[in-house]
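Narrative of accomplishments. A recurring question from our advisory board has been how the design workflow behaves on a single, concrete structure rather than in aggregate. To address it, we present the structure tokens for one chain from the evaluation set, followed by the sequence designed for it. No filtering or post-editing was applied between the two.
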């Protein structure tokens, strides 16, 4: 049975004293979730690098692309915190954020998020191309208006959220090449499938907190987490096959293919252990394995391209 929810938190109170300008700056930065933005920028960079033709690596365009992506991602995450501020106030891990604690006014966070997101998309239009801007706009819209409301309605929200989470490499690819071919969609497929075991493992670790806030993630509605472990196992096995797609579409070579199998087996082994126990400790192992898998896979893919076609 799902744990009983705590009473809904009321509107956040304004702090007794006006925070200093440096503190407000820190709070506005916290709204953007810098660590998440860093991951988005990193996968965008790899998408750009892999999508750039030999001899056509434009550093200035890359700079505009990463700047626009970081602004749009930060703005989108700030808007997400604005939308979920009352639920964040119920969760132990998020109740100290600027909005639940009342250190920032919701109207300020809303304006900040809108301005940042719009500025990022406009920067991509001006410095990259319309396709890259369109992919980024689709990322923001799907994250805020599909994934965010779905989290309180259906356990399928993890699948919905995997779509905007898988789009950043396509932004980079579109900025570098101006199109989205089969190789770009291979990157999307890897990111999409990878996110399922990664996100479900995190949700299992914080299932009580998510339940407290009213989120209907799979581990929240799956009391013994057996179904959660099976989903993680299924998608980890799927990732073994999907990880080889870049070789099949000609984006990477046999060295990358071998590395993807090794990394995929590591993910799958962690998922098998979780499927046998459904224990929180093993969910943490899956999460850690996923954090090793993705950057390692992209690094090997980039190194494979560099070795095959040095500039």
């Amino acid at each position: 049975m799902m744990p009983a929810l705590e009473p809904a938190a009321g509107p956040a109170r304004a702090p007794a004293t006006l925070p200093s300008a440096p503190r407000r700056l820190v709070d506005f930065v916290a709204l953007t979730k810098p660590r998440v933005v860093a991951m988005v920028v990193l996968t965008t960079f790899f998408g750009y690098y892999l999508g750039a033709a030999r001899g056509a690596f434009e550093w200035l365009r890359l700079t505009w692309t990463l700047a626009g992506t970081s602004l749009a991602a930060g703005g989108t995450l700030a808007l997400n915190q604005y939308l979920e501020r009352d639920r964040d106030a119920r969760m132990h891990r998020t109740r100290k954020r600027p909005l639940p604690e009342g250190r920032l006014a919701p109207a300020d966070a809303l304006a900040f998020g809108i301005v940042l997101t719009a500025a990022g998309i406009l920067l991509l239009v001006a410095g990259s191309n319309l396709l890259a801007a369109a992919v980024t706009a689709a990322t923001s819209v799907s994250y805020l208006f599909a994934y965010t409301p779905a989290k309180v309605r259906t356990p399928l929200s993890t699948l919905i959220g995997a779509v905007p989470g898988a789009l950043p490499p396509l932004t980079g690819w579109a900025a570098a090449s101006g199109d989205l071919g089969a190789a770009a969609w291979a990157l999307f497929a890897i990111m999409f499938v990878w996110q399922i075991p990664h996100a479900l493992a995190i949700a299992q670790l914080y299932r009580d907190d998510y339940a407290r806030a009213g989120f209907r993630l799979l581990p929240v509605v799956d009391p013994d987490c057996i179904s959660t472990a099976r989903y993680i196992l299924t998608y980890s096995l799927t990732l073994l096959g999907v990880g080889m797609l870049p070789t099949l579409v000609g984006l990477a070579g046999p060295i990358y293919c071998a590395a993807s199998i090794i990394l995929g087996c590591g993910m799958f082994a962690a998922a098998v252990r979780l499927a046998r126990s459904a224990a929180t400790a093993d969910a943490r192992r899956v999460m850690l394995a996923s954090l090793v898998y993705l950057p390692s896979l992209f690094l090997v893919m980039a190194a494979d391209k560099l070795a095959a076609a040095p500039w």
